[in-house]
Here is the input.
Amino acid sequence: GDSVTQMEGPVTLSEEAFLTINCTYTATGYPSLFWYVQYPGEGLQLLLKATKADDKGSNKGFEATYRKETTSFHLEKGSVQVSDSAVYFCALSSARANAGKSTFGDGTTLTVKP
Amino acid sequence: DGGITQSPKYLFRKEGQNVTLSCEQNLNHDAMYWYRQDPGQGLRLIYYSQIVNDFQKGDIAEGYSVSREKKESFPLTVTSAQKNPTAFYLCASQEGGYTEAFFGQGTRLTVV
Here is the structure.
């Protein structure tokens, strides 16, 4: 079945540091890929998405590129802020397997210190 | 605005009680899901429904029950058979395959 593997956390960075959170996936066919963000006590929100190979999703300074050859969708941000502190989930969705359900990674907790 | 509404935000359950968590969506999505999240953990799928009057068990369905009588509503009942119900519960919906999930704000359930 489908699976998503995220780098283990937690990740602690200083403000303005460069962020990378690794994500690799296993899926049948060509899934859509997503990054979600969860702030404390809240539900998940879509951060960005990519629907086909070589697509780059971007939002709020975050970027991720759909790499089919390496089955990866790594999240990057050039300069993090304290307000970026949250839990980040990588996910995929396809129609062929899992009846369209999303498959989520375990989440990576990011803490940004001033 | 379209979205998913979960209620209540906080819920307290006594030992041996059943409690029901509400989830309503006005996005016209066919698929709806219930997840459980424990502190510092990822999401675990409890139940899902892809169409009215039909639902399937997820990975941790024991001690939970659901119904899907209306497209907009997918309530979750935490029964007394669930021995460790204290957790954060998230409801989500999707338009279909290849699309993003939309989440509610969650219900935090605590056993007292």
Observations:
- The two ends of chain A are 41 Å apart (CA to CA).
